[in-house]
Amino acid sequence: MTRRRQIYEGKAKILYEGPEPGTLIQYFKDDATAFNAQKKGTISGKGVLNNRISEHVFTLLGNIGVPTHFIRRLNMREQLIRQCEIVPIEVVIRNVAAGSIAKRLGLEEGLQLPRTIIEYYYKDDALGDPIVSEEHIACFGWASQDEMHDIADMAIRINDFLTGLFAGVGIRLVDFKLEFGRIYDNDYARIILADEISPDGCRLWDMTTGEKLDKDRFRQDLGGEVEAYQEIARRLGLLPEGENTVLDMAEHRKNRGK
Ligand code: TMP
Ligand code: ASP
Question: Where's the SAICAR synthetase/ADE2 N-terminal domain (predicted)?
């Protein structure tokens, strides 16, 4: 493999310099973390599935006019993306109570929220990504009011679209996390959707059985993580029924490299 300059390594992905200025290569690892990296593990084959799932979702979002960083998938674990300046805010959209909101507000997991909630978390691992309000975001200049307006609009639009997409394949979109970035055209900055959309950053429950098909399987030691991610890919039509071709290929390569 040719040596490329690594730009950044996160918990689940690595960014490398891209082939042209203004582009990056986003590499999906099998590493999984939870609870601000207090829990660490590997989900063999996860990176391959997330790369494919995220490609699919970003492509569909692009088709309905949501600007994204996605350019194209390059191979099993990599995609070409537009380089952007990440807004240091994690945007969480919730339709159903689960996870931290259930804990913080004493809500029963599974409670359908009377309306969709958008929350913001300041991206800072050392602080454990604290929840913040738009007041904090404006006060500390993490994003402008106009940018926050665009971000909230896009988040709602993405939620509406994804809720329908997943409902169509028997999955309840409980909550999910988005990240946005800035692209500069001369002096003008515009907001685009960045990062990934995959079972790592979404809660996805089977509509009939309530089974968790996302990273909560890892967080809560439920087992069957990769099978759950595969099930999401399969329902989205990305894996042939009854076959795990994508994963088998990944496993094959990995084992060969050992
Ligand atoms: P939470 O209930 O733990 O706040 O998580 C809400 C959603 O955001 C859930 O789908 C998982 C996702 N998420 C991330 O992708 N990264 C994170 O660091 C956190 C805390 C949550
Ligand atoms: N808190 C993140 C999650 O549970 C992962 C992490 O911060 O290590 O999705």
Answer: 6-235
Q: Is 123 in the pocket of ligand 2 (CB under 6 A)?
A: no
Domain ranges of the chain: 85-206
120 ligand 1 Cβ < 6 A: no
Which amino acid, residue 204? L
> Which atom of ligand 2 is least distant from the CA of 201?
9
Q: Count other Cβ atoms within 10 Å, centred on residue 177.
A: 18
Q: How far apart are CA 63 and CA 166, in angstroms?
A: 17
Spatial neighbors of 256 by CB under 8 A, at least 6 apart, are none
Q: Which ligand is nearest to the CA of 34?
A: 2
Question: What's the predicted TM-score (pTM) here?
Answer: 0.93
Say yes or no: CB of residue 196 within 6 Å of ligand 1.
no
pLDDT tens digits for the chain (258 residues)? 567 999 999 999 999 999 999 999 999 999 999 999 999 999 999 999 999 999 999 999 999 999 999 999 999 999 999 999 999 999 999 999 999 999 999 999 999 999 999 999 999 999 999 999 999 999 999 999 999 999 999 999 999 999 999 999 999 999 999 999 999 988 899 999 999 999 999 999 999 999 999 999 999 999 999 999 999 999 999 998 765 555 554 454 454 444
